[in-house]
Amino acid sequence: MFDKLFRQFAQFYESFNPSYFIIAVVAFSQGVQHLADLSINYMLKDDFGLSPAMMGLYLSYTTTPWIVKPFWGLITDSKPLFGYRRKSYIILFGIFDALGWIALSKYGTDSLYSALLLLFLIQLSTCFVNVVGEAILVEVAAQASRQQTNFQHGASKNVSIFFGVRAFGTLISAFFSGALLHYFTKQEIFMMTAAFPSLLVLVSFFYVEEKVDPRALDQNDRRNNTMQCIKDFWTFFQNPLIYKPVALIFCFMMAPSSSTIMFFFYTQVLGFEPSFLGQLKFVYALSTILGVLLYNNYLKDVPFKKIFITTTILYYFCYQSMIILVTRKNVEWGINDKFFCLGDSVMLQLVGELNLMPILVLACRMCPKNIEATMYAMLMSTINFGSTLGSQWGALFLIMLGVNQNDYSKLWLFIILTGVFILMPLPWVGVVQEDKILKSRDQQLEETKQKDCESDTVSTSNLRQEDDQQQLLSENEQQKS
């Protein structure tokens, strides 16, 4: 047993890339900032008196920056800041993130609009840092793919690292989030949360990245030409092998959300205290980590179609089990509310993570060279846009059914109707053809390499001409003197 562990550690050490460290720090910072989630929910519910539907709508508006992730990816791919494509952006938006939490602790509870504006700023900053971290993630996966025969393993490993570390950060924050509300105010918790992006900024100064020579930023270089990046992205995205799976992912993520109404049900009907809600969040994060480990160790070689169909059906039945809770059948059967919620949460989050992981790995494998951040950000924004629409769909269904903080009589019907959306994408899962997607990506990679070689030749020629001109000028100045 110890020999096996030693061999695994030796293999990890040999394949370790220093970029993993900054990827892990970005992921951990993003996950641990969920420390303030309960405080935000209670602020909107108690301080501003929002209904479940309006809370869901307002929170979905603050997540708008996650929908336009390709724009942030395009910036970091094509426009180096202070000589760096990744490092400078992490530092800049990490500072904005920390300032946003500090401002929320000082002025967030003054008015609803100021709170929403600051939450929007925080989401924007977190989103941009996330885009840069995922860009580094895809770059490392692409480097590993050139050294490995099985790119599926490399993609699974890198995605598992990022989302596993993020879940670990969420796990730590969830452990303390509920308990802290008993001892600290919401404003004090917002101030504590500002420490995590501040730590990210500090660590980022030590991230080693190759500095871009300003003289080398020739527009013939595809990475520095924004319009060329857009053209490359659009050419790649027009491929039916790409846009059809993207459409499938979008439809799957668009299932109406029940998170806000369940928060109200837990607090008002079941009388759960913040400490127990923190325990539920802890269970969510623990189940997420377990799901990542299960997928990476046992399911990463399972074809996408097989695992997606199986986990989607399982997730549907786990989601429908909430009907037992909202109709209070569990009480009739002698099952304690807290016990039922903990068990149901484990299954729902575990299966949900196993359902999402193949999508994230597929997204990582689809990204072509030179537009890694843009393409991966577009795929993630598809997921986020679908989730945002899901929140709005959920709010609309709540309004139509008349379910609110004063009437939960039709909540069971809401769960039945929204559950149908989970199964709707299954008939079209055949549009995902993994082998053909990889062949298309490899073909695009070869074409890009040829164009990069041509670009490097032109850039080298231009640099030589600039050197010759500078030498002639210096010689003329010496003759004049």
Short description:
With 481 residues, the protein is mostly helical.
Please provide a written account of the structure.
By secondary structure, the protein is mainly alpha-helical. The chain has 22 helices and no strands. α2 packs antiparallel against α11 (195-204). The protein starts with a helix and ends with a helix. It is a multi-pass membrane protein. It holds the Pfam family BT1. One of its GO terms (molecular function) is folic acid transmembrane transporter activity. Residues 443-481 are annotated as: Disordered.
Second CATH tier, the architecture:
Up-down Bundle
Q: How many structurally independent domains? A: 1
CATH superfamily (homologous) name? MFS general substrate transporter like domains
- The percentage of residues in β strands lies in under 5%
Shape: globular
The secondary structure category is mainly alpha
H and E order? HHHHHHHHHHHHHHHHHHHHHH
Largest sheet properties: none
Number of strands: 0
- The number of helical elements comes to 22
Return Rg in Å. 25 Å
Secondary structure: helix percent: over 70%
CATH topology: Growth Hormone, Chain: A
As residue ranges, the low-confidence spans are 455-460
Average pLDDT value? 80
Question: What is the terminal separation in angstroms?
Answer: 78 Å
Overall CATH class: Mainly Alpha
Subcellular location: Membrane
Region (Disordered): 443-481
Membrane topology: Multi-pass membrane protein
Biased composition (Basic and acidic residues): 443-454
